[in-house]
Amino acid sequence: xxxxxxxxxxxxxxxxxxxxxxxxxxxxxxxxxxxxxxxxxxxxxxxxxxxxxxxxxxxxxxxxxxxxxxxxxxxxxxxxxxxxxxxxxxxxxxxxxxxxxxxxxxxxxxxxxxxxxxxxxxxxxxxxxxxxxxxxxxxxxxxxxxxxxxxxxxxxxxxxxxxxxxxxxxxxxxxxxxxxxxxxxxxxxxxxxxxxxxxxxxxxxxxxxxxxxxxxxxxxxxxxxxxxxxxxxxxxxxxxxxxxxxxxxxxxxxxxxxxxxxxxxxxxxxxxxxxxxxxxxxxxxxxxxxxxxxxxxxxxxxxxxxxxxxxxxxxxxxxxxxxxxxxxxxxxxxxxxxxxxxxxxxxxxxxxxxxxxxxxxxxxxxxxxxxxxxxxxxxxxxxxxxxxxxxxxxxxxxxxxxxxxxxxxxxxxxxxxxxxxxxxxxxxxxxxxxxxxxxxxxxxxxxxxxxxxxxxxxxxxxxxxxxxxxxxxxxxxxxxxxxxxxxxxxxxxxxxxxxxxxxxxxxxxxxxxxxxxxxxxxxxxxxxxxxxxxxxxxxxxxxxxxxxxxxxxxxxxxxxxxxxxxxxxxxxxxxxxxxxxxxxxxxxxxxxx
Length: 593
Ligand code: ADP
Hints:
Elements: H1 3-59, H2 68-82, E1 85-89, E2 95-98, H3 103-106, H4 116-124, E3 127-132, E4 139-146, E5 154-160, H5 161-212, H6 227-262, E6 266-270, E7 276-279, H7 281-286, H8 305-315, E8 323-325, E9 335-342, E10 349-356, H9 358-393, H10 399-430, E11 439-442, H11 443-460, E12 464-469, E13 475-478, H12 480-497, E14 503-511, E15 514-520, H13 542-547, H14 555-565, E16 569-574, E17 580-586, E18 590-591
Parallel strand pairs: 12-14
Antiparallel strand pairs: 1-2, 1-5, 3-4, 4-5, 6-7, 6-10, 8-9, 9-10, 11-13, 13-18, 14-15, 15-17, 16-17
Helix pairs in contact: 1-5, 5-6, 9-10, 10-14, 11-12, 12-14
Adenosine-5'-diphosphate (ADP) is lined by residues 493-494, 497, 521, 523, 526, 534, 539-541, 544, 551-556, 580.
């Protein structure tokens, strides 16, 4: 049964009950009022009849008392006038006139002296009774009053109760008809209001249903101003407020997820029961976590003992010291792991943050090696200079020896100067303090200018330089000053390590818009295992160190830097026919014009 029907039925029941109660009350009061009125009328009529009879008797005083026939005729006359049965009763109880009985029957009528209304009339001046009439054989209402008359002592009026009841039924029927009409009207009104409220309740239920389905777009339904409306509005506002909070939460979550995804640090979150809540991509990659068992115990996913210890401590509410560890199956990387308890309202969860410090450690090692190398490189010439200066200061050497000592001191001082210059250059390149300035150059002229720069060294060793420029590489786009330094370094090396009277070849070629410059010599070449390392700072191939050609060991490191500034790369290889070849590849440097 729906709300509207229930509402209608209860309103109808209430109206029916109220109308039934009102009907019963009204009909009983109507009935008693009608009774009273009939009674009053009869009393007035009996008194009037008595008065008329007394008046008639007074007027006829002195004459013979009227005959029974006259009395009966008088009874009939008054009976017709008042519309009721009229009976005259003599003092001894004989009936001397009756409007309902013919004259002949009067003598056979029962003595009326003991009738209750007659007895009461003589005792209190008015008698009243209701009883079955033996004479008329119907139930009657009797009212009797005493009368001062020579022929009678009591006058009595009687009205059949069926008349009284008929009058009452008329009143009752009218009342019931009115009540029935009222009930129909009430039902119509109840139906109207039930439908209106039912319609509103259905509207509100529809909105609630939509909200429950997850669609929280605000409703434009008019909830009304009564209590129902107030409740619906209050609930609606609460739902909207909740919706806003949910949206905010979702936004926060998304933001959090974006931050965690974008982080370089690995983040792992574990709940108070040790269940894995979150492991961002960085953490998964660092710890090589292939299948993430979220919401399961973290040990099912992360089995690293050091991490397990950290998380255990953090779950116990402590903040353990950070730990360095290597990820599983990769000893070359170092990860710094830090754990902390995560305070929530209840027991602690734990957050683990992972930082890959491999590069930091490597950089730190490189820096330390570099400082050691620099110190070592400087100590050699300094020791030599100091030794020869000490020998000179003793003043025991001859002029020839003195000159030789001074030449050695100068050589080492020059080496130190070169070393410091190279170091400063590298420092500038590292700090990106040398901006690149690209220009189009004629390749052959450019190479010739570098060769001219190295000419003294080449001539000293009677070496020749051969230059070939392929047609596509006639012009190259480079920073001329920087590539000049790079090419000069390569030419100096070629001259240094190749034998005297050998030939050094410089080739320029193009592959699409990529320019390829190579410097080849006829020297001993470079051992295969050293090929990848000769571009490191201070790296020298051992056997050439034995010859000590006076290099700083920084030349190729500078070359690499300068070429990389051009966005290119440089590598070394051994030629099949003997000797080393350095190949410089420069992208977008060749132009076909
Ligand atoms: P250096 O100042 O010692 O020449 P570089 O960085 O220029 O330092 O070269 C590093 C090492 O590479 C050299 O010590 C040398 O052993 C090797 N090397 C460089 N160029 C050649 C070459 N053309 N032939 C053989 N070995 C070479």
